[in-house]
Automatic annotation (TrEMBL):
Residues 21-74 form the HTH cro/C1-type domain. This is XRE family transcriptional regulator. InterPro entries: Cro/C1-type_HTH, DUF5753, Lambda_DNA-bd_dom_sf. It comes from the Bacteria. It comes from Streptomyces palmae. One of its GO terms (molecular function) is DNA binding. The lineage of its organism: Bacteria, Bacillati, Actinomycetota, Actinomycetes, Kitasatosporales.
């Protein structure tokens, strides 16, 4: 079929719902318009849900259960798609991250997840729970995924990790003085590993700082390169080298402008003294 988008159920809960919806529709030989007529939605709406561009609302999921005779299976799956604390696109990124040969990170405001101590990560998620941004269950989901990502770094051979942190990452206190002190101490230890490079992009860079959003760049074992970037509401994995290459170029420029690793570690150590 022309322009039929392939679906990856591991990409997100929304993608899993879309794949299930499409499979049920294909089993019956219905077009998207025909399913839409049965459910009370347009064929365009069906297409958007199947491809993960629109989340399944409770009404949509219940209508699908009614049409397909699936009890409440789709309603429960739709609820999971709506309630996941993981941004769409990020699960797919993780499947590549855990096998990448090189990982390049840039972060603003908080320490990147791969470099977070357990207490720092717990403080970040606890703050989101207190604000009502996520539930306790979603916080556990985030922490569990982070633990799996960090554990994957112990693989052999270890990936090379290049991390550039905006100065705001190390100056913003998270979890109180003790948690922050331990986090800064871990950053110093991280910088001493043979497979890492850690740099701080100081405030003085001003408009010369290359990025205004967090950026993740992966080099896979076959040397293919991917980019992942996210806002507060959405993540996007990019494979097209016409779009990835400018990000790599900007990252290299950022590394050249940032403090050296030695100067970065000195700054972190000075801040570490202030948290005692």
């Amino acid at each position: 079929m022309v322009n039929r988008k392939e679906l990856d159920p591991d990409e997100s809960p929304g993608a899993r719902f879309g794949q299930r919806l499409r499979a049920l529709r294909d089993e019956r030989g219905w077009t998207q318009d025909e399913l839409g007529d049965r459910m009370g939605f347009s064929g365009t709406h069906i297409s958007a849900v199947e491809t993960g561009r629109r989340p399944p609302t409770p009404h949509f999921s219940a209508s699908a259960d009614r049409v397909f005779g699936t009890g409440d299976q789709l309603s429960r799956q739709g609820r999971a798609a709506r309630n996941s604390a993981i941004l769409e696109g990020f699960p797919e990124f993780v499947t590549h991250e855990v096998r990448a040969a090189e990982i390049r990170l840039f972060e603003l405001g908080i320490i990147p997840g791969l470099l977070q101590t357990p207490d720092y990560a717990a403080a970040i998620t606890a703050g989101a729970v207190r604000r009502g941004a996520i539930t306790e269950q979603q916080a556990e989901e985030r922490l569990s995924l982070l633990a799996r990502r960090q554990a994957s770094l112990e693989r052999t051979p270890r990936p090379m990790i290049f991390a550039v942190l905006d100065e705001s990452c190390i100056r913003r206190q998270v979890g109180g003085p003790a948690v922050m002190a331990a986090q800064l101490e871990w950053l110093v230890a991280f910088a001493e590993l043979p497979s890492t490079v850690l740099q701080v992009a100081p405030y003085e860079l001003g408009e010369r700082r290359a990025f205004d959003l967090p950026v993740h760049l992966l080099t896979l074992p076959d040397r293919a390169q991917l980019a992942y970037a996210e806002s507060a509401q959405q993540g996007r994995l990019e494979r097209d080298m016409r779009l990835v290459q400018p990000l790599l170029t900007a990252y290299h420029q950022l590394q050249a402008e940032a403090l050296s690793q030695a100067a970065s570690v000195d700054m972190i150590k000075q801040l570490r003294k202030g948290t005692q």
